[in-house]
Amino acid sequence: MKEVETPAPGPGEVLIEVSRVQLSVTECMLYRGTEIAHHDEVARRIRESNGGAQLFGHEFCGRIMAVGEGVDAYAESDRVYAPGKPYCGECTYCRSNHQHLCDDITSLGFDCPGALAEYVRMPVEPLCTLPDSVSDAEGAALQPMASSVLCTLDADVEPGDTVVVIGAGVMGYQCALLADRFGAGTVYTVDVRNRPLELAEQNGVKAIDATETDVVEAVNKATDGIGADVVFEAVGGDQSHATEGGEPIAQAFEVVRRGGTVVQVSHIEGEIDLLPRYLRSKSIRWINPRKGVVAIQPGTDTGRLAADLVADGEVPIEDYITHELDGLEEFETAVDITLNKDEYDALGPAQLVLD
């Protein structure tokens, strides 16, 4: 913790009074020293900053207190969250309207200060306004929801599809509900925990308890041996083999039908063995979804659609907001809860309430 001057917004920027910030699992892992992407740089900055690194905090909501020169799309008192990332605007991808592929994207809470602060200055590109009916708690949890919207759109779910979601964490739960809302015929969610499975069933999704049921056998039986049209792998983590054994990603490739799609929602840590011939023989489309905010139609994008779906009650993301702590002083406890959900009986990451 460190006392700093309240920043003033520059051209194209706004000053945000942070209402809530939700820690991501990746941020917590980096903070605790897990050797994943950028861990060396994060460790160095924490070690050398004396409390001034201003790392982390890309999942948040707040209210705009001041706008900088040239900002027309936002005004003081607007409530916002950040589903996107600032892009360079100059590379080949940006110039061809593929900003989500920009190779010089700015990451909030890494390349520029994040929202683990009472006030944060940010560029307007990654921001999106919040409907009045979306609470601050939901607003702080909306960034993963916007990513789940992208995952589901990139899966190309068709009317009547059989969809299987392996892992009912925050984004797995959201992808299952979104696939159902986007027209899938039957959606199955797979997990080993009772509460996520119960919530999924309450929202129209069929639950498979992997501790009691063989997932591949159950899906094959339900589809006359064809398999699922689309499978979301939403467990990630440390896995050893993608096409052999019974780990989540191997399950996903086994349960998907020939010519089907596997969407890699969660990050796989480190390296993983893979037999390319297996994927080729089944003609599997294994995709890593786009990032940031992507336009859907002239009138909306994935960030706004995510907020509207929550505002309308189509995807009740508040189900996974189970732990709310007062103040930045509770950061260490929030990290513990987020990394040890079972120990704290938590479903989603912990949130810090700042106002």
Question: What ranges have pLDDT less than 50 throughout 5 or more consecutive residues?
Answer: none
Helix content: 25-40%
The total tally of domains equals 2
Helix/sheet category? alpha/beta
Q: Main β-sheet: number of strands, strand sense, barrel status?
A: 7 strands, mixed
At the first level of CATH, what is the class of the largest domain?
A: Alpha Beta
Q: What's the CATH superfamily of the largest domain, by name?
A: Medium-chain alcohol dehydrogenases, catalytic domain
Alpha-carbon Rg, integer:
20 Å
C-alpha geometry: globular
Distance N to C terminus: 17 Å
Total of helices:
13
How many strand elements?
15
Average pLDDT rating: 94
- CATH topology of the largest domain: the name is Quinone Oxidoreductase, Chain A, domain 1
SSE order: EHHEEHEEHHEHEHEHEHEHEEEHEHHE
In terms of DSSP E residues, the strand content is: 15-25%
What is the annotated CATH architecture of the largest domain? Alpha-Beta Complex
